[in-house]
Amino acid sequence: MGVRILPGDPALLIMGTEASPEQAAALRRALGLDRPMASQYVDWLAGALRGELGRSIQYDVPVGGLVLSRLRVTAPLTVLAALFMAAVAVPLGIYAATRHGRSGDYVAMVLSQLGIAVPSFWAGLLLILLFAVRLGWVQAGGFDGWEGGLGRGLRALLLPALSLGLIQAAILTRTTRAAVLEVLRSEHVRTARAKGLSDRVVTWKHVLRNALVTIVTVVGLQLGQLLAGSIVLENVFYLPGLGRLALGAIAARDLPVVQGVVLFVACTIVALNFAVDVLYGVLDPRIRHG
Amino acid sequence: MCSIRASATGSGRWARAALHHHRSLALGAALTAALIATVLGSFVYTPGDPLLMDIGARLAAPSIAHPFGTDHYGRDLLARVIRGARPSLAVGAVSVGLALGLGVVVGTVGGYLGGWTDEALMRLMDAVYGFPAILSALLVTAVFGPGLFMSMIAVGIASVPVFARLTRASIMALTGQEFVVAARALGAGDAAIVARHLLPNTLSPLVVQATISVPMAILAEAALAYLGLGTQPPLPSWGLMLREAQNFLAQAPWFAIFPGAAIALAVLGFNLLGDGLRDALDPRGGGLARRASARAPSASAGRAGGSPRRRGR
Predict the structure, then answer these.
(1) CA count, 13 A, side-chain hemisphere, A113
(2) B18 touches chain A (CB under 8 A)
């Protein structure tokens, strides 16, 4: 509802400032913008439940299709960032926990502390400076679509995914370390060691399995953060994704698009949290049967 | 012999951990103090005018005259980085203050009254919490227009649920404690019990959370300013400076390096301070105290027998 009171008149935006007040009023009537806000909101909500998110004022196309078309960039970007995050953070967190109090642990913690402090968009600018401006290995920004091939598309998303995943990787490293340390101190691990099992077997078979519930919970929450973080990163790398769509829509007072993007992101986060809840049962049978 | 060596190794490890612990706390406090001193000092002195343009000196490399170089309008970057600390700290302080204030009220009402009031308030907090901070910040600034004040409000609202949940948990844990029952038996009213007995005992986790929330607010403010939704030109802000620097990465890399480093150092300082404080104020006698008690059980037993109020923390 708040978005409905955005400053600026969508009717004037469509027709230009040259439009007469009568023409603007007619268009406002046609768009339903002259009705009470509560009535507009109820209509929009009913449409959203039917999967209709309205039409974009700026592009004059259905919002649902617009959001889906931009997912071709945002979804792979989020998935790539999540893969980078998990590939770096989980092994580093386990490494730090198994070397608790030793130099390897301190190095990992210093790295994660630095990673948390660096804003993702600054990391993006530094990566552009190094890999695009200085070395010329990748393009500084933009996305030519998937038509040019999978490799070319992935190359364009590589630096954005690294920048997006960095801060979340740092957080996940600390979470993984804490979760593994907690399990390492438990009695069943001591028993496993007393039985003469090797460190490798103890870590991978007994420790990681039990630490996984905590790690998966945090990863689930982080996927939502990554999706939201892409709003900023897409603007650093000029990627035509959901984030740039939302920001452009705010600037152009394209209210249905802003609502559509926000609703989509919020629903995705709810769905991710639900998926994490389901995954608990798979990872830990005690939760399924409890 | 073996046990002596093991004990010596254990002591060494503990000492190293203690040193590390103090070092990060000290480093965090030093960085945070430097940031606050920079902001306060900027009201008295900045090396040059952060708004003064000098087109002849545009994008000048770092030199003695301009230690951080100049931007695309020839403005001194050191002066702008120093002046740019103000919005960061302002958003950090005001938004966390707002979140703390609202969160304590919501958490106290929910935790103390319980029942449907608590349910309704917590579901509302869940809804706010599930919404990523940057998205709600975008919405608030989109509705009410961009600017520093709106950044503060937006970031503050996004942080309310954490403080509400912490306060509620502490209040619920404390409500059944003997000293609260005793206060009630002595005729204290609800308001007096909450103000004089419950709230003072919820302070330490809230202080730690506030320290942890400030760097998040600084990052959010920087991101909003970078998107053009926070501080507006020509006033300097670290995020806004990075937005301007993006078009000149090849010609003037220093333009992007110094404001970004300032954000990272400010966030690092508050994070280290928050971590150190959390260890020091851990209700389970965490951090160094927990490690010490693991080594000397008798000493920890003595310490555990503190006052009920202390244990309630």
Answers:
(1) 22
(2) no
Task: Tell me the Ramachandran region of residue A244: left when phi exceeds 0, alpha when psi lies from -120 to 50, beta otherwise.
Answer: alpha
Name which of A78, A111, A125 to mutate to probe chain B: the one with the most chain B Cβ atoms within 10 A of its Cβ: A125
**What values do phi and psi take at A180, rounded to 5?**
-65, -40
Does the beta carbon of B180 lie under 8 angstroms from any beta carbon of chain A? no
Of all helices (H) and strands (E), which one includes residue A11? helix A10-15
What residues in B contact A246, CB-CB < 8 Å? 138
Q: Which tokens sit at B286?
A: 């965490």
**Nearest in space to A107 (alpha carbons), one of A117, A96, A115:** A96
Where chain B has pLDDT below 70, the residues are 1-22, 141-142, 281-313
Tell me the pLDDT tens digit for each residue of B240-279.
999 999 999 888 999 999 999 999 999 999 999 888 887 7
Q: Do B137 and B155 touch, CB atoms closer than 8 A?
A: yes
* Residues of chain B contacting residue A273, judged by C-beta atoms under 8 Å apart: 130
Please give the structure tokens belonging to residue A121.
């968009």
Exposed / middle / buried, residue B184 (Cβ in 10 Å: 0-12, 13-18, 19+):
middle
* Pick from B71, B23, B9: nearest CA to B256: B71
Q: What is the dihedral of CA B71, B75, B79, B83, to 10 degrees?
A: -90
CA-based nearest residue to A264, from A68, A77, A69: A68
Q: How far apart are the first and last CA of chain A?
A: 41
- If 0-12 CB within 10 Å is exposed, 13-18 middle and 19+ buried, where does residue B190 land? exposed
DSSP string computed for B126-180? HHHHTS-HHHHHHHHHHHH-SSHHHHHHHHHHHHHHHHHHHHHHHHHHHHTSHHH
Biggest alpha carbon–alpha carbon distance for chain A:
86
CA B31 to chain centre: 13
* In contact, B156 and B98? CB cutoff 8 Å: yes
Residue in the structure block whose two tokens are 């078979």 = A205
Residues A23, B272: Cα–Cα separation, whole Å: 60
Contacts of B39 (CB under 8 A, 6+ apart): B85, B86, B89
Name residue A75's amino acid: A
ipTM above 0.85, yes or no: no
